[in-house]
Amino acid sequence: MVAITGICRSTRLACCALITAGALTACSPPVDSPDPNVVPNGVWRGEIEQFGRALPFTFTVDGSGNSLQVSYRNGDEQVAVERVSYDPTTQALELWFPSYSSGLIATVDGTRMSGETFLNRRNQIHRLPFTAQHGLEYRFFEQAADDYVDLSGRWEVLIDMPKFELKQNGVASFQQRGPYITGTVNTEVGDYRFLTGEVRGRDLYLSSFDGNGTQLWLASLGQDGILRGSFDTVTYQRAEWKAKPNPDAELNDPMSLTWIKQPQNRLAFTFPDLDGNPVSLADEQFRGKVVLVVVAGSWCPTCHDEASFMAPYYKNNKDRGLEVVYLMFEYSDRFEEVEDQVRAFRSRYDIEHEMLFAGDASRTTRNDILPMLNGIIAFPTTIFVDRKGEVRRIHTAFPGPATGEPHEEYKRELRAFVDALLAETA
């Protein structure tokens, strides 16, 4: 057992007083006298202990000293860690995402490391044990299966979350090459981002870890052609899911889920910006402009996906008469408690458009704050306001890059619709 003491972060995470070391059962490649001054470069295989199960993932390490970089790998996605540091004296590696207020601290011992992840959620910071070994690229199994069913295609999904008394419909899209499988599950409130794993016999194994979200999807294909299994995540705890193949499976139209209740079809609000100055949609800076009002939160993974698109899109179109306003609903109604995270979110995506603090993200609070809407069921939700100040469209959720063609289609539709709005006169 090793201990790291006195490590605190400005991201408002709890101090880490003790990190428990563990060991993976697989053997590491032989290394002659690893240099304690550097973290071995290349691929690492990690495991996070979650609800008594091992959640595997891989990440890469490159460089040393001030140029040290780490990226988490999930299918085609590589997520660069926002802040990386390594202390050769204590051999402590710290990987932080200030834009999520989440991170990982580990002690590096040659070709192994062990420590804890710190994942920020509404009610607490979840601390999960973590171990990793250098030089292993496989996800779940060291040897690929010789016998496996083909699960590629489109599936109609039902997720049952008993802790929240919630059932969620979704559409899964899987791509399989041999026993290796990738894909995602899309729902009316967003997608579950990049999942990757393996098929062995009739069993499916999928996982994802991107520095903030932990997902472990397990299932078996029954003789009736239905997948049934478990879905573990820090956010939703323990859940169950099932899926049946359906090439025609579709979700409800995302433009039919949220609407303005008022007959005048207008949106009104006044919220403080990140410096405390009140900003209203009626202000001069928005008059005669096309305005995209995005209901968002720095805690929301698909809001991060949306911001990576919206930030450069705004820069390229602001001179045409486009404005974008983020209404940030966070884990607290006190801005001082979330300010660091919100500002880190802004910095991560180099956001230049307005960002306003709207309050707490709870369902009751957000519906009270924007009573002219029938309800906000997903983050992000994008409200399209024309040059006359009328709401022309409301799109619920954002299909992230893991969804593939739906992601590209939505971006094409958004660009075309905003071009049409910009072509109109006030």
Account of the protein in words:
Helix content is 13%, strand content 41%. The chain has three domains: 1-137, Beta Barrel (Porin); 153-245, Beta Barrel (Lipocalin), CATH 2.40.128.120; 270-423, Glutaredoxin (3-Layer(aba) Sandwich). By secondary structure, the chain is mostly beta strands. The protein is globular, with a radius of gyration of 23 Å. Strand 22, helix 2 and strand 23 form a beta-alpha-beta unit. The N and C termini lie far apart (68 Å). It has a nine-stranded antiparallel β-sheet with strand order 4-3-2-1-9-8-7-6-5, with no helix packed on it. The protein has an eight-stranded antiparallel beta barrel with strand order 10-11-12-14-15-16-17-18. The model is unreliable at 1-32 (pLDDT under 50). It is built from four helices and 25 strands.
Task: Spell out the blueprint of helices and strands.
Elements: E1 42-50, E2 53-62, E3 69-74, E4 77-80, E5 83-87, E6 92-97, E7 102-109, E8 112-120, E9 125-134, E10 153-161, E11 166-177, E12 180-187, E13 190-191, E14 195-200, E15 203-209, E16 214-221, E17 227-233, E18 237-245, E19 270-272, E20 278-280, E21 290-296, H1 301-317, E22 322-330, H2 335-348, E23 354-360, H3 363-369, E24 381-385, E25 391-396, H4 405-423
Parallel strand pairs: 21-22, 22-23
Antiparallel strand pairs: 1-2, 1-9, 2-3, 3-4, 5-6, 6-7, 7-8, 8-9, 10-11, 10-18, 11-12, 12-13, 12-14, 14-15, 15-16, 16-17, 17-18, 19-20, 21-24, 24-25
